[in-house]
Design goal:
Helix content is 46%, strand content 16%. With 409 residues, the protein is an alpha+beta fold. The protein has a domain of 72 residues. The strands form 2 sheets. Strands 5, 6, 7, 8, 9, 10, 11 and 12 form an 8-stranded antiparallel sheet that branches. The protein has a 4-stranded antiparallel sheet with strand order 1-4-2-3. Strand 5 and strand 6 form a beta hairpin. Helix 2 packs across helix 11, helix 8 packs antiparallel against helix 9 and helix 12 packs antiparallel against helix 14. This is Tubulin-tyrosine ligase family protein. One of its GO terms (cellular component) is ciliary basal body. Keywords: ATP-binding, Ligase, Nucleotide-binding. InterPro entries: TTL/TTLL_fam.
Amino acid sequence: MPQRASLSHKNRLMTNQMNYLRSLRQNGVDAVCIANATYLPKTYRLFNENECLQFFTYINSKVYEDKITKDGPQFIIKMGKEVHRGRGINMLFPQEKEELNKKFDKGELCGSVKTFKVAQQYIVNPLLYKGHKIEFRVYWILASTNPIIAYAYDKTLIRRCIYPFDKFSLLKGAHVCNTAIVKSTLKKMQNEDDDNDNDSDETDDDDDNNNDEISSQEDTLFIDWKLDHLQEILLKEGRIENNKWLQNELLPKVDRMIIHAIRSTQHTFAKDSKLGEFFAADFLLTDDLDLHIMEINYNPQTLNTTEARKQQHFKMVQDMIEISNAYLRSRFMRFQRIIGKLLTELESKKQKGKDLITNQIGQEIHKAYVDRLEQGISISQDNLFRLLMDENLQGTRAYKDLIQEKCLV
């Protein structure tokens, strides 16, 4: 989809969220609607002069110094354009703050420094698993942009940061759970161990044991859960009481956030039944179970980190193909009916073909391009994608009733 950057470029996604929220406020929606429509943490766009000035005024204030003394780093700096896999991400540690202050002259050069960087509020109280910060990735697809139809995958990739979480840690791997960062850190650790082995007289058996240990550690960093396992842990810890928390609270929040992300960007999409895209949204749960989208990637990597994950990705591709094929077959059926009608008229009236293409037929062809599932075509029950939104449906039903009528503008 040519307009995918509206979702995958951090600078564009954040700008789209701000414009979306501004539009909601201008239309008089209430604070609850605004809160539900907010899917990204507070962000300063350093390419926007006013926001850049606000950011540097804040990080060079005593209030900020007191804050980081108490709670550790408050911002994570990201490159706004198409930069993923951990590249262009830096915690605002003291050295990074000094370098940023130097580049922007403590804000004096805001508006003149060409940059796509954004400063996103760092979530200082993430939910931890065995002392490590975790994030989870939800795969989803835009099946069509004519109208907007989207599905989200039921299984989830949960990633654990490589180092134990400490809000004062200066190790990037304690704060950023990106797969590429985890794998590069493990590789570096393995190379360091290999260098140490070269200086010793240890046997090959020791080398094999070391490689097994690295592989075992890698497997534990990519947790092959469905989110119901997370629910089980939270129930055991007494952090939640409802054994329907996943279905009634977390998944509706996940789906609503993705829906709002789509709604905030869909004005940029070309309306075309031939367009679709594969995305992944990275989510973070806080210690008090608040939810945030950290970023959205298009055509995300599906790393074969474990054997179970290989099977899961194979199943996911199968399910995506089934959905695409269902809408394609439905479109074929609609055009087949139109062609059959034209052939019947051509044979009965013996008219020339050009005389059959009337305004009415043109309207039927236009409607045939509008994606929807025809009667007799459905998505199989074992397909693990769930419907997110379908703008063929009316009112709040288009969004699974996850957005109130008063919040739709």
